[in-house]
Write a structure and sequence with these properties.
This protein has 339 residues and is of the alpha/beta class. Helix content is 54%, strand content 7%. The protein is built from 15 helices and five strands. The protein has helices spanning 11-21, 33-40, 59-66, 86-94, 107-137, 142-163, 170-185, 189-200, 211-214, 222-228, 231-239, 248-254, 275-289, 301-310, 318-330; strands spanning 3-7, 26-30, 47-51, 77-81, 99-102. The protein has a five-stranded parallel β-sheet, sandwiched between helices.
């Protein structure tokens, strides 16, 4: 049975969460950051639920200390908070938390979210362990290792696209468009190759979103849209420990940021957005318009061009958008689209 540590200075909150979880999990309780750290010296839970605002030692300070404790440094941390401001969300994820749960607690939401996060955490570690295992087995042949890595990424990309009935081949096309944009920017061959792989896995966070929401034919509710918007942070968390390609999480994390700062998950603006993510953001938007959906066919090329032109400096980096416009103008037979 998974063991979960609940940390909150208000005993009523601890008891509420304990009652929600006790049938499915072994629950450890702490009423302060110091008490939590003392428990973690002896126990290694599957997850830590950590109150953000506590006297003496805040949740963020506790998390910082957890990261220095070798035995528990990789245990996923989920914050408990009544805050709903974007700044709080940014601070939480920058600190290295996996997710947050808002107060007051909704029992079904708490149970479902914790179950999903534990599943994602296991997926991340399983993928990392599998890559490490295969790398160890094939370390005498770098070519075989490279081929294996590419096959794994291609398989993951196919698995991601398979979740959405209307985005077959999306990840591969985004990778190809990103690769060409990077080449036109003047990136080295190695950087161009890396951006291809980063583009392949930019949507990996959708693994953590239910098929019912991804394939819902009608308009999403606000709650469903909020769940969809969590996929960049989920993807970044899954990819962050792949040491062979340190930048691989960047595309997943920030490809929905906008140049004007109105994107998500962190509302980054202009060159605050990593260049890799700005490249993939343009490629991703282009493919969304040039792919079929349940409610429409591929958008005509001139209309797509107009959308990219109109998005310069607002949705898109203007330099990268101009490169995409050049690619469109060169594509006189409109081949850069879902066929």
């Amino acid at each position: 049975m998974d063991k979960i540590l609940v940390v909150d200075d208000e005993i009523i909150n601890v008891k509420i969460v304990e009652n929600i979880l006790m049938q499915d999990y072994e629950v450890l309780c702490a009423l302060s950051g110091q008490e939590a750290l003392e428990i973690l010296e002896k126990e290694v839970p599957s997850m830590i639920l950590l109150d953000l605002h506590m006297p003496g030692m805040t949740g963020l300070e506790v998390l910082e200390k957890i990261h220095t404790m070798e035995r528990v440094s990789n245990v996923p941390v989920v914050f408990l908070t009544a805050d709903n401001e974007r700044e709080t969300e940014v601070r939480i994820f920058k600190a290295g938390a996996m997710e947050y749960i808002q107060k007051p607690f909704q029992p079904e939401v708490v149970l479902q979210r914790i179950g999903r996060l534990l599943e994602l955490y296991r997926l991340q570690h399983s993928m990392q362990q599998e890559v490490e295992k295969k790398t160890q087995q094939l370390k005498e042949s770098s070519l075989r290792v490279k081929r294996l890595s590419v096959q794994i990424m291609m398989s993951l990309a196919s698995a991601i696209d398979a979740k959405d009935a209307y985005t077959k081949g999306h990840s591969t096309r985004v990778a190809q468009y990103s690769c060409e944009l990077a080449r036109r920017i003047g990136k080295s061959p190695r950087e161009v190759d890396d951006i291809y792989y980063i583009g392949l896995l930019h949507d990996i966070g959708k693994i953590g979103i239910s098929d019912e929401i991804i394939n819902k034919p009608g308009k999403l509710t606000d709650e469903e849209y909020a769940i969809i918007k969590s996929h960049p942070a989920i993807g970044a968390k899954i990819l962050e420990n792949i040491s062979e390609l340190p930048d691989i999480s960047i595309g997943a994390h920030w490809h929905h940021e906008r140049y004007d700062g109105k994107g998500y998950p962190n509302g980054l603006k202009g060159e605050q957005i990593p260049e890799i993510a700005r490249i993939i953001g343009v490629a991703d938007a282009y493919d969304a318009m040039t792919s079929r959906r349940s409610y429409r066919d591929v958008i005509p090329q001139q209309k797509v061009r107009n959308e990219i032109e109109n998005g310069k400096g607002t949705q898109f980096d203007p330099v990268i958008a101009d490169l995409m416009l050049a690619m469109i103008d060169e594509d006189t037979e409109y081949r850069l689209r879902e066929q």
